[in-house]
Amino acid sequence: MITKRIIPCLDVKNGRVVKGVNFAGLQDMADPVEMARYYNASGADELVFYDITASVEGRGLFTDILREVASQIFIPLTVGGGINTLDDFDRVLKCGADKVSVNSGAIRNPDIIPAAAQKYGNQCVVLSADIKRVDGKFMLFTKGGRENTGIDALNWLEQGVKNGAGELVVNSIDTDGVKNGFDLELL
Q1: In 3D, which of 55, 42, 52, 13 has the Cα closest to residue 30?
Q2: What digits encode the pLDDT tens for the residues 141-174?
Q3: Any catalytic annotation for residue 51?
Q4: Options 88, 130, 176, 183, the catalytic residue
Q5: Domain count, the chain
Q6: CATH number at residue 92
Q7: Could you tell me the residue range of the domain that residue 24 belongs to?
């Protein structure tokens, strides 16, 4: 029997949880610490926390909010946004993350995946991919879904697992926020 796990994902921009449609039109939703406490109390199995503008703004992740979230929950916490180096992995792990998610940083430097897996273990390395259909093909996007890399997304994910990513987070830009269910074709 397949075990179902409930893993909410909090997209954070400017210190607030936001939600959009197809990665656009972001609306302010809530305080990330309050949302994390709510999901923890409601029985979520894990929480994913993404600082969704860190990479495009060229800055590090909001560690103050991360520390507060980590201190308030008692479930595994996966964190991403602005992860470009092993020092970034180390910084968010020291703030209380259990796993680190890398997306744009891995596109710029694919060697970060095997290096992080060797240093922290495969279970700590989460490869996140923002994917959109372009001319009938699944293409990998970066910078919060703003830029097409020209990389075939399925090949990218397969290579990421071969290089040491212990988990994948697949974000379908096409179905994000439209309330029509999962992108089963992509999955």
Answers
A1: 13
A2: 988 788 999 999 999 999 999 999 999 999 999 9
A3: no
A4: 130
A5: 1
A6: 3.20.20.70
A7: 9-172
